[in-house]
Write a structure and sequence with these properties.
212 residues
């Protein structure tokens, strides 16, 4: 008769037998197991979103810096235009004066747009700011030329007297083009060209800088 195996004694209290413990329950799919005491909770990783081919993340751009730099450059260009008008107004015809005015509007707007596009990139604020700065540069360039021509042909004191009597005399001279009662349509045309070119060049340069 074979010897019988000794009967298993029930585990004493406080004794841990891993073979007698029930199997741990598996968490349902999609749920992470609870962390052990003292272990930090693990969060699921965010899914990776691939950038489409040929597209790069937006590099940003500073519309404020773009507008400020464009403004100072526009002031310099306007002063240059005013100086040219002072030295050449005696020999200018009406056609030459209008051509120089429109040329100044285009050049001022193009340079302002380039600077705004390089610094502001694809920011709409930089593009709109370029249009506004180009318009202001074109307008005040003409007004400053009117005052400088009066100071050169008469005297600086005469300019002071004119401004005291009529503060908006330069703006009226810009609107009427130096003729009495007739609107010079080249004046608003210059502002429209400046706004369109400034905005368009800034947008074009900003888009190319983003792609590059």
């Amino acid at each position: 008769m074979p010897p019988q195996a000794p009967a298993q004694q029930p585990p004493s209290p406080g004794f841990y037998n891993p073979y007698t413990q029930p199997a741990p329950q598996q968490p349902p799919p999609g749920f992470a197991s609870a962390p052990f005491p003292g272990q930090p909770q693990m969060h699921p990783a965010q899914p990776f979103v691939a950038v489409p081919a040929g597209q790069r993340p937006d590099g940003g751009g500073s519309p404020v810096a773009a507008v400020i730099l464009a403004f100072f450059v526009s002031v310099l260009i306007s002063l240059l235009y005013s100086g040219i008008m002072v030295f050449t107004y005696k020999d200018q015809s009406v056609t030459a004066a209008n051509t120089l005015y429109l040329t100044h509007a285009l050049v001022n707007a193009a340079i302002v747009g380039i600077l705004a596009g390089l610094l502001g990139r694809r920011r709409n604020g930089a593009h709109v700011g370029a249009a506004v700065v180009a318009v202001l540069g074109t307008f005040f360039g003409y007004c400053n030329a009117v005052l400088l021509i009066l100071a050169e042909s008469r005297s600086p004191s005469f300019v002071t007297e004119v401004l005291e009597e009529e503060p908006f005399f330069p703006a009226k001279a810009w609107w009427y083009g130096g003729t009495a009662g007739d609107i010079d349509w080249f004046s608003p045309l210059g502002l429209v060209l400046a706004a369109v070119v400034g905005w368009g060049v800034a947008r074009l340069i900003g888009a190319r800088r983003r792609q590059g």
